[in-house]
Amino acid sequence: MSAPVAVVMGSDSDLPVVRSCLETLDSLGVRYSVQVLSAHRTPKEFHRFAESLDESAVKVVIGFAGRAAHLAGVLASLTVRPVIAVPIESGTLQGVDALYSTLQMPSGVPVATMALGKAGAVNAAILAVQILALSDEGIHHRLFEHRRKMTDDVLEKNRRIQADFNSRGG
Amino acid sequence: MSAPVAVVMGSDSDLPVVRSCLETLDSLGVRYSVQVLSAHRTPKEFHRFAESLDESAVKVVIGFAGRAAHLAGVLASLTVRPVIAVPIESGTLQGVDALYSTLQMPSGVPVATMALGKAGAVNAAILAVQILALSDEGIHHRLFEHRRKMTDDVLEKNRRIQADFNSRGG
Amino acid sequence: MSAPVAVVMGSDSDLPVVRSCLETLDSLGVRYSVQVLSAHRTPKEFHRFAESLDESAVKVVIGFAGRAAHLAGVLASLTVRPVIAVPIESGTLQGVDALYSTLQMPSGVPVATMALGKAGAVNAAILAVQILALSDEGIHHRLFEHRRKMTDDVLEKNRRIQADFNSRGG
Amino acid sequence: MSAPVAVVMGSDSDLPVVRSCLETLDSLGVRYSVQVLSAHRTPKEFHRFAESLDESAVKVVIGFAGRAAHLAGVLASLTVRPVIAVPIESGTLQGVDALYSTLQMPSGVPVATMALGKAGAVNAAILAVQILALSDEGIHHRLFEHRRKMTDDVLEKNRRIQADFNSRGG
Amino acid sequence: MSAPVAVVMGSDSDLPVVRSCLETLDSLGVRYSVQVLSAHRTPKEFHRFAESLDESAVKVVIGFAGRAAHLAGVLASLTVRPVIAVPIESGTLQGVDALYSTLQMPSGVPVATMALGKAGAVNAAILAVQILALSDEGIHHRLFEHRRKMTDDVLEKNRRIQADFNSRGG
Amino acid sequence: MSAPVAVVMGSDSDLPVVRSCLETLDSLGVRYSVQVLSAHRTPKEFHRFAESLDESAVKVVIGFAGRAAHLAGVLASLTVRPVIAVPIESGTLQGVDALYSTLQMPSGVPVATMALGKAGAVNAAILAVQILALSDEGIHHRLFEHRRKMTDDVLEKNRRIQADFNSRGG
Amino acid sequence: MSAPVAVVMGSDSDLPVVRSCLETLDSLGVRYSVQVLSAHRTPKEFHRFAESLDESAVKVVIGFAGRAAHLAGVLASLTVRPVIAVPIESGTLQGVDALYSTLQMPSGVPVATMALGKAGAVNAAILAVQILALSDEGIHHRLFEHRRKMTDDVLEKNRRIQADFNSRGG
Amino acid sequence: MSAPVAVVMGSDSDLPVVRSCLETLDSLGVRYSVQVLSAHRTPKEFHRFAESLDESAVKVVIGFAGRAAHLAGVLASLTVRPVIAVPIESGTLQGVDALYSTLQMPSGVPVATMALGKAGAVNAAILAVQILALSDEGIHHRLFEHRRKMTDDVLEKNRRIQADFNSRGG
What we know:
The structure is a homooctamer. Chain A is 52% helix and 15% strand. The first copy, chain A, is of the alpha/beta class. Chain A binds chain H through residues 20, 59, 80-82, 84, 99, 103-116, 118-119, 122-124, 126-127, 130-131, 133-135, 140, 143-144, 147, 150, and chain H through 20, 59, 80-82, 84, 99, 103-116, 118-119, 122-124, 126-127, 130-131, 133-135, 140, 143-144, 147, 150.
């Protein structure tokens, strides 16, 4: 794990959501490692992985899990690196089970919880990059470019919609 | 841990609820051990404890935890003993956070979830005793007595309420 | 009912979920009986069935029901055998109706509630087997094998995903 | 049970809510019987009671229960008399557990569900009386008087509040 | 309105659910009238209709409505006939909006609320018939037949499922 | 009703919340009338009141109601004046029943829903005043003053808290 | 912005819902402008737009946004014009996230919240027109026509459904 | 703002919760500034403050707000510094309104959401310190000490509870 961001998912069925995170990291030029490790199905391997983080080059950890989502909490209990988590919708409870399991950590062990699903996956990447940018000028610069592009996209859509509608109604 | 039931709570603030469980075990004549161990604040000690269960005399584990309640899930991931859990209400979400964190375990790692709060604490004790009773005639007998007493209590209340009301209205 | 596990479903429309339970019992080599009996539509036959459990060879009961899911609660009120229940999603309320009807049993009559849907159905089977394993060495051994296989499956997936991603990003 | 309305509560702790029902029946001059019987703690006595209703003088049944509230559903499965139910708030889930357990009956076995708590208890009495009034002129008349009084009470309050406020602001 | 049951729906888009009610009434040989009237879009016509019920041959009213479902409540405020209501799922809130709008009537004005959707529609018909059966022997008899048939259907399914599974596993 | 704002509450128990609305109207110098009228307990008087609004001097209507809160919806169905509503918390469901009953109006009959409780009561008054201000310069001016004062209050609190904390930590 | 109604959406993906609003404004002959501006992605442009409203010809603002829907709240904090908002369902939480983010404004800054989705979009248009109608006779007249047509549509459906059903059952 | 952590609360009524955050920062020896600024009541001052962050010495921002909690989202839209948020319970919705308003940010603008209430306030401080510790050895060391102390506290409680209970039951 020589990359600064460690991405961990509880099941490979989370991959469609995780991919939005990885693509955002790629687009911002930040390296990452990827693991499939389950807090419940591979508890010993998972524990060893989590314990190793403080001695590794990893600076930020991003966890993805659904249902009784203990993954990020267990990570956060075994490292002092910032842990970001994305609750995954799975099954019938709209992801509220994953959200509460991730968010409601006891005092002393924080998990930085993102929105449910793909928006959260993108934002986990951006938050990780915002943290790295505090001590890396190049990343800081790319972050600004990324945000400017996002703004420009909305403004371009605004121009188009005004062309469509406002001649008529406005 | 020579007792057949191991009771684990995530925080000593859970004790008022846990006590209902211990008293029920006492009244049914079943021995137990008690631990305060947090999946999040004492992750290494907790992991060691959970790993030791399969080699111990413990036959049933009962876990109590609130909020992002990972305690029972981590126990269940590290032992094949039946794990019973009681979600504890704590904070503003009515215990729904603890309930979902406890209940929604992924396929492969069951946690026998009880009702929220004291009713769940009593029932965790009774379920543990029902399991032990499968191979212990004495416990089986005491379980029947316990249930008969519960029924008699309701029937006695029925007699009283009928004396109060039915002369009037019935 | 000479089998140690009795599986009861409230409607044959629950069969797609129930099947995950039966297949897990099959794979662990544990025999079971199956019933379709409704607490609401066949109340007398259901009552007789539940009353007969304490005198039968059944050691663990597993109930499946949706909506106002009274099935497991009525079973638990008439037997001292451990009763495990799986809430079934049906209709518009995401299965929360079945969950609350199953979980929130009053003190004195426990129902071991599993996760909603298929994960819960698999876990009901495993919990039943964990209980039987307390007094059956053969079952205990098969349970360990089952869990090792589950762990190996995740680790194999981890190897594959690392081959896919980490050369690139890590 | 010679009275036309049978009131059943699952626990004598429901009495503060039940009393609002009984007082409304008293004020409308309708006789009733009262029982404390639990579907879970006195299942055999409860079953016998429910089975006896079709052969009795009871015309309407009113059930009160909290948590996993199976009481009214079991009654409705064993009688063709109209069954009215009032979910009782108890514990941490705001009574939503009792509401869903009562309301979400499967097709074929109706339970007429009222609002949670005391408003529901009063309305259970009035609905029972509306049903009896269909074939009893005296009750029909008293029902109209009851409603007129309710309307007059609100109109009197309106007169007072207008005297207080409208001289000032209106 | 010479029929004893008046069925009112707030929108003709409710018809797929309403049909389950009408078919049940047909199968039990009970006559009914049908209206599409909206408490919100045809308030004056709706008010006149509701006011006319007490002077009509209608004995029971069944209302269907979704969203902010005021239909049954307004009916119940203008007649002393028993009013039964079925909340309709519509839009994004799973029908909980319709359920709460229907159920949570203030003290004095009861609405007999049924389960959401088609199960509720069938049960509204059966509850109406249970009320009519109190003073009509023929209807009472048909109601018993209907219930026996329901029980026999489940028992037949039980026989089939036991033939399928129990030779194998039991 | 010569005042431009008509305030209607479903019960005089709503008065503690309503008062926050009236005081805000007073402070902004806008006249109002006040009524206690229940859509369910005084349906005929309420209907007549609502029908009269279009011919009156009332320009904006503000309704307060709890539980199955039909008050604002019935008002909105009988007038084309803008109707603002404040859901009142009452009973066990946190006011979500009143919120959904008020908010989820069908297409064609809008109700401008405010936040639950006192914040909503204040805001109902301000929204009514914002509407009146569109054609009244004096009111428009007072509205600006009111907002400036609100901003100044927060800035004053900011100065105080900075004096308290920032010398220490900042 | 010379049109009296300003419609703002947070994303062009909201357009299918927004269209129901625009069509209603068209059908009532009221002019409008349309913007795509995001409180989060174009914060500076959005702030400038909101600040400009008080000096413009805009009389009513309608905002559309999903998820953490801050759009209408930010608008309302920067203008004294009435702000109407429609929460958009997006993602897994049924739109409850957008609803609470829109509705629960603090005291002092009202947002007139409409129902979720298309019904809310239509109603936002009608409420805007109701406000404009207070000082415009022509709009007032068209509003009455619109409502009459809505009533006639329901009554026509009632005639048809009675032709279908009542000959049979009634 | 020369301190590395900027703490912003939407109202001084949030202070009891905020204090838990400030005390944790104090105990970890990290300096902070404190502001009371409301996204809704002081929108212009708030906007200026948020815009100034990228040019300041602030490295991490922590926001506190209740109800329609837009504070952290607006901050995050105007700075690339990591923004941490604590939803505050206020009013009747258990803080779920604040939680959803804070958490469900659109893709592109992350907010690191903490648990509701005081546990979240403590964890916001710790997460901020975890971020600062990535480039500050002294802070990193104090963080480890803080965590060790937390673990020791639980283990001490475990010793005491075992002394109390296990002699008796174990």
